[in-house]
């Protein structure tokens, strides 16, 4: 069995909204180059794969036919603006080959998900994916096709009876939640900055799933300025208890790293070390609750030099069972490449030097603490639906 099936090919940089767009494909190039220089892509047990654009059947598993046709039409005539389908907006400008580039990501995400489900690989990572905002009939939030939804649906079609999805991107994972809103086989958990102050404006504790799937949508809406200790307290106060109760057969996660304090598009204040700690925890949860089956995706992240490459290199190392010690020096060759390619200095080490200690929920609820109020709101809304006590572990 492969330790890790990993998606990478320079063809994935074809998902390109233009030089002025925050989701610049250089963040993928720099991640792959850093992971390579750290010895991860050619490590024993790591199998790197690509994918070709799929036929429409795969996309139709989660998207409407009219929408797919609109994306195809806009891809061949990029000046076309079709705002009915979210295409041609500032967030989602059209570009040549958009249909093929977006579809390729979906095909790759299905590839790694099914490799994990079939036992060919223990873990799967597609850091080029994670397009969690794409809706069944519209592009949204830099996302054209929802590769995570495609991957989860492929797992269900292959026989999975319970799939858990945990999204740690700073933005609410609204597209994945929408796709599986009425499906009790899929538990979606999203930890994000409060939608009252950040796109997409959704994801509140009372959003629990459809009538036939109450309690399978879980939302932790964190206040702006949340930093490491509070974020980790919220994460550990919600995620493991629900995973244990749900008993997933596979764990799917989205590792958007735009929760970092340096990210220009949001207002949380996490360190790289906190993000790394969450990846380690999710890896542990996959082994503890899902038989070791873990499929992880990239997502948001717009500090393209200091944050994204280091964060997702840590993700790859953890998934490959070759974690990078935080104190590791960033390879000199990569730093030189960044300086030449981007005209700016690169970070020196694979850490921000932050402390990742936090208080567990077992220490008790503090009504004066804003994080505790958020956590309790989510636990009170969801935990009883899973037979869990909202106040005590």
Automatic annotation (TrEMBL):
Pathway: Ketone degradation; acetoin degradation. The keyword Magnesium does not apply. Keywords: Acetoin catabolism. GO terms for molecular function: histone deacetylase activity. The keyword Magnesium does not apply. Residues 21-316 form the Histone deacetylase domain. GO terms for biological process: acetoin catabolic process; epigenetic regulation of gene expression. Gene3D superfamilies: Histone deacetylase domain (3.40.800.20). Pfam families: Hist_deacetyl. It comes from the Bacteria. InterPro entries: AcuC, HDACs, His_deacetylse_dom, His_deacetylse_dom_sf, Ureohydrolase_dom_sf. Belongs to the histone deacetylase family. This is Acetoin utilization protein AcuC. The lineage of its organism: Bacteria, Bacillati, Actinomycetota, Actinomycetes, Kineosporiales.
